[in-house]
Amino acid sequence: MQTEQTVATENSIHRTTLNWLRERGVRLEDIADLVYRLQGEFYPDLSLDECIHHVERVLQKREVQNAVLTGIQLDLMAEKKQLLSPLQDLIYQDESLYGVDEILATSILHIYGSIGMTNYGYIDRVKPGILGRLNNREDGQIHTFLDDLVGAIAAAAAARLSHSRKRARDLQNGEPSDPLTD
After folding, report:
1. Could you tell me the domains of the chain?
2. pLDDT for residue 181
3. How deeply is 55 buried, as exposed, middle or buried, from its count of CB atoms within 10 A (0-12, 13-18, 19+)?
4. In terms of C-beta density within 10 A (0-12 exposed, 13-18 middle, 19 or more buried), how is residue 2 classed?
5. Is the confidence at residue 82, as pLDDT, over 60?
6. Helices in the chain by DSSP H: which ranges?
7. Residues 21, 65: contact at Cβ < 8 Å?
8. Chain mean pLDDT for the chain
9. What InterPro entries has UniProt attached to this entry (predicted)?
10. Contact indicator for 87, 142 with CB cutoff of 8 Å
């Protein structure tokens, strides 16, 4: 007996990822602001539009979409107290020794190399912009996973931007391009 199963398309998964981020209060501009904070001092001509472009490209990666959807789902379940204990308490309280949220976030960072990890470590510690709001719990929502995922998306986009700028410079100088820019 075969059961009917809905197959998600690349486009539907991408749209769902963007919708879920928006529903949880995260705009692409919020993530782009983090990218700007990470890269602005290195590129004085950097614009928010360029940062948004790189955030959008990172969010087109299936690995990123999978991580975001998984993390948001776990946050929602913890909010509704639908997880079993002790996992419910660990996620609900954002327990400091529970590192699975960071592990899921680091899966995003590996796409663009080690510079993403450095960027992530910095913004995860400082929690600028949207990260501070997601981490403070003032809105009553649980963002145990989301704050780390947003930080990782920003760090990956910053790494992508940096690789892209280097590639453009290399091409201008007649050197081979870097494949990590896609």
Report:
1. 25-173 (1.10.3760.10)
2. 47
3. buried
4. exposed
5. yes
6. 10-23, 28-39, 48-59, 62-79, 87-92, 100-109, 114-126, 130-136, 146-172
7. no
8. 92
9. PgpA-like_sf (IPR036681), Put_PGPase (IPR026038), YutG/PgpA (IPR007686)
10. no
- Quote the CA–CA distance of 63 and 137 in Å, as a whole number: 27
Q: What is the pLDDT of residues 164-173, one digit of tens each?
A: 998 888 888 8
How far apart CA 81 and CA 92 sit, in angstroms, is 8
| Vertex 94: Cα angle to 88 and 95 (nearest 5) | 90
Angle at CA 15, nearest 5°, toward 80 and 51? 105
Instruction: Give the predicted TM-score (pTM) of the model.
Output: 0.91
Mean pLDDT, range 77-106, rounded to an integer: 96
CB 119 within 8 A of CB 40: no
Q: 146, exposed or middle or buried, with CB in 10 Å at 0-12, 13-18, 19+?
A: buried
Can you say how many angstroms the Cα of residue 9 is from the centroid of all Cα atoms in its chain?
Answer: 21
**Tokens 């998984």 identify what position?**
70
CA 157 → CA 38, 70, 122, 174, distances in Å?
Answer: 10, 20, 14, 25
